[in-house]
Amino acid sequence: MDMSMEVLERVLLASVTEQRRSRRWRIAFRFMAFAVVISAVLVNGSFDLVGEGDGREHTAKIEVEGPIGEGSGVSAEKVKRSLAAAFMDPNTRGVVLEINSPGGSPVAAGIIYDEIKRQRNIHPAIKVYAVIGDLGASGAYYIASAADQIYADKASLVGSIGVTAATFGFVDLMSKLGVERRAYTSGKHKAFLDQFQPRNEDETKFWQGVLNTTHQQFISAVKSGRGDRLKSAEHPEIFSGLIWTGEQALQLGLIDHLGDTDLVARDVIQQERVVDFTRKDSAFDRFASKLGASAAREISQAVGVSGIRLQ
What we know:
The chain has helices at about 1-45, 75-90, 105-120, 140-145, 170-175, 200-225, 245-250, 260-270, 285-290, 295-305, and strands spanning about 60-65, 90-100, 130-135, 150, 155-160, 245, 255-260, 275. The protein is an alpha/beta fold. The protein folds into 2 domains: about 1-45 and about 285-300, no CATH class; about 60-160 and about 225-280, 2-enoyl-CoA Hydratase, Chain A, domain 1 (Alpha-Beta Complex), CATH 3.90.226. Helix 9 runs antiparallel to helix 10. It comes from Pseudomonas fluorescens (strain SBW25).
């Protein structure tokens, strides 16, 4: 009986030992597989960030796609670097900004506008053409107005030269629910945008003044970019925030011609070969965003590659 128990113990011990070894190998294999994936992403992903010419003359293309602002589809920093790369390429014969955006941050739009103007001054021989796709509204049109010429499709939506800021008020609802708001501030108007406090007329007028000032900055930029082509004297509603089709925008002087990128490259710049200089996220960034978890951000920080780009 003792002999049988001893044999059974040895068999069980051997089984446990084998399971531990198997578990270690599985962990090691998974770690190695993960390391291979990360290495492949870093190596392969680092070569697709910004388009480069191959020694042949071309039209440079930069996409302005999605909401404008840091952390959104269109980052001012990315567009600036895309512009620099396109203008610095000795074989660039013209630059096309492919715009399809509802607008966004006036700060980001202003930064991009200024950079387009700066690059045009440095490289006067290289013309910039904004080509609006489905939508070139608000901040997107702000950017487009910095170009030498603006093109759009007859059905594109163009304009919306205005500023908006929206919020909600929950004062009555809180009262009905028996909820009391307790806010502690060190300035008289520090909480003037607080949704849970009654609206103050003086603060409302102040905030409207801020919006009006930003609107005037927008208008000044558009007038500077479009010049006499803009028929704002005959049509003051241009600056009212309304939006028009490309066909209507042409009559108002908001755009110069109807057409797309292919037409501009072929007939205007006369370089049908188009090279994309849009600054892209690295493959690791795309991989991490697909994971959609905080673990991805932690891995990115741990290996120190979150912000790596080729310049």
